[in-house]
Amino acid sequence: MIRASRVIEALLFASESPLSPADLARADEALDEERVEAAITELRAEYDREARAFTIYEVGGGYQLLTRPEFAPVLERFDSVPGAQRLSGPALETLAILAYRQPVGRAEVEEIRGVGAGGVLKTLQERGLIEVVGRGEGLGRPLLYGTTQFFLQHFGFRSLDDLPRSEELPVVLARREQPREEADGTAAGVSEAG
User: Fold this and answer.
1) pLDDT in tens, 125-178
2) Each residue of 171-194: b (16+ CB within 10 Å) or e?
3) CA atoms within 13 A of residue 164's CA, in its CB half-sphere
4) Long-range contacts made by residues 95-101, C-beta under 8 angstroms, separation at least 24?
5) How far apart (Å, rounded) are the C-alpha atoms in residues 118 and 120?
6) From CA 174, how far away is CA 99, in angstroms rounded?
7) What is the pTM of this model?
8) Is residue 185 predicted with pLDDT exceeding 60?
9) Percentage, residues of the chain above pLDDT 90
10) Whole-angstrom Cα distance, residue 113 to residue 147?
């Protein structure tokens, strides 16, 4: 009989996307989610002990067999190894807004960024990173966007809870409020009695 860890390893090796414990347990009558988790723990320990170039990562709501990050520079030198699709600065800005503020409409994205976002939203949708998740209550019931499971997988997150807290970011994604002095019409640091 084939060991459970080898069945799990074969499934993860063959899959192009993350597999949940429930998905993996369906592969064999002898497996359940608890045995799947134990097999994954066993495989990770084996890969660590043998210093393998890959391991099992928890991403996008499941598990995936991936190359360890320290091998990325080596892999980038070969044309035959598929590389990650690079995103432009505007696409990354828009994606960050969506990730932190979802569900969010195009008008709100444009208000935050200060430029049109229609083309960027279309590109992010085509790449499978965002999707329409509903309609707003405003005039015309605008489309609302949110991130996808592929977004989590692409960036290596288990869930949206893995995103850095917004207050830890160098740029605040919340609405900016003007300092009181500027709102009053006086320049910051300049007194009226001067």
Assistant:
1) 888 889 999 998 878 888 899 999 888 888 878 888 888 876 766 655 544 433
2) eeeeeeeeeeeeeeeeeeeeeeee
3) 11
4) 95/124, 95/129, 95/130, 95/147, 95/151, 96/173, 97/173, 98/124, 98/130, 98/145, 98/146, 98/147, 99/147, 99/151, 99/160, 99/163, 100/163, 100/166, 100/173, 101/173
5) 6
6) 12
7) 0.53
8) no
9) 24
10) 18
Place of tokens 């592969």: 27
What residues contact 51, with CB distance under 8 A and at least 6 apart? Answer: none
92-110, pLDDT tens digit by residue? Answer: 888 888 888 889 988 888 8
Q: What is the pLDDT of residues 43-69, one digit of tens each?
A: 999 999 999 999 999 887 889 888 888
Can you list the domains of the chain with their CATH numbers?
4-75 (1.10.10.10), 89-180 (1.10.10.10)
- State how far the Cα of 129 lies from the Cα of 150, in Å rounded to an integer: 6
